[in-house]
Amino acid sequence: MPTTKLSPEAIQQMLAAHPLWSFSDERGGLLKRSFRFESFQAAFAFMTKMAEVSESLDHHPEWFNVYSRVDVTLTTHDLGGLSSKDLAWVQRADQAAWNVNT
Question: Is the pTM value of this prediction over 0.90?
Answer without folding.
Answer: yes
